[in-house]
Amino acid sequence: MSGAPAAGYVGADERPPARGLRWWAVLLVVIAVAGVAFAVGRFSAFGTSPAVPGDASPEAGFARDMQVHHTQAIEMAMTIYRKTDDEGVRTLAFDIATAQAGQRGEFFDWLVQWGLPQASTAPLMQWMAGLPEHSHGGGAERPSDDELRDEMGMATPAQLAELDSATGSAADCLFLGLMIRHHQGAIPMAQALVELGSDPRALQVAGGIVQTQSAEIDLMRSLQQQLGCEG
């Protein structure tokens, strides 16, 4: 029967697109919205990202000084690793060398990411002056570089030469004594960063150094007793 189409009837030219086409249309809209949201988020982050540590910050000073400190620890650890006959000392030396090499690389990377030079003209541990116990004053009162290195627990060139030439248990005992002193100099530096710093990753690493090196001091003292080291 001819006449007007029944209510609800859709002609062939007026039918909605196939289901597959509707799906792709929705998907494209979702992708477009997600892209806009991502771009907005990225541009918003540029204005709200936390400031990185500056050149005079505790984090920068710690990263520089601890690279120097770790470099000597690695040198001493590898010296004894190559010639010790004691498995406990050898294992400890390997652990110290590998762990501190990894940390030294991270400290280097921090400064790169922060856009800061690897070296500074500031004296060693100058960044710790914010703590009363590490404020050395100014002028003629300021310690020499050798005195500051001693405060950091660093071995002298003469001590390094002695370690290089020593053999047997004498070398093991000398290494343990030097490394205990070395760790005892690093722990206050890490504790100072925990008190003065604000960068989350730097604080995490500094806290880990305090825990790890404190435990290694206990282990080294145990090794000293086993080897019959004097002092």
UniProtKB/TrEMBL annotation:
* DNA damage among keywords: no
- Does the keyword Transmembrane helix belong to this entry? yes
Residue ranges of domain DUF305 in the record: 59-223
Give me the segments passing through the membrane. 21-40
Q: Which UniProt keywords apply?
A: Membrane, Transmembrane, Transmembrane helix
Q: Which domain of life is it from?
A: Bacteria
Gene3D superfamilies attached here?
Answer: 1.20.1260.10
InterPro entries in alphabetical order: DUF305_CopM-like (IPR005183), Ferritin-like (IPR012347)
Q: What is this protein called?
A: DUF305 domain-containing protein
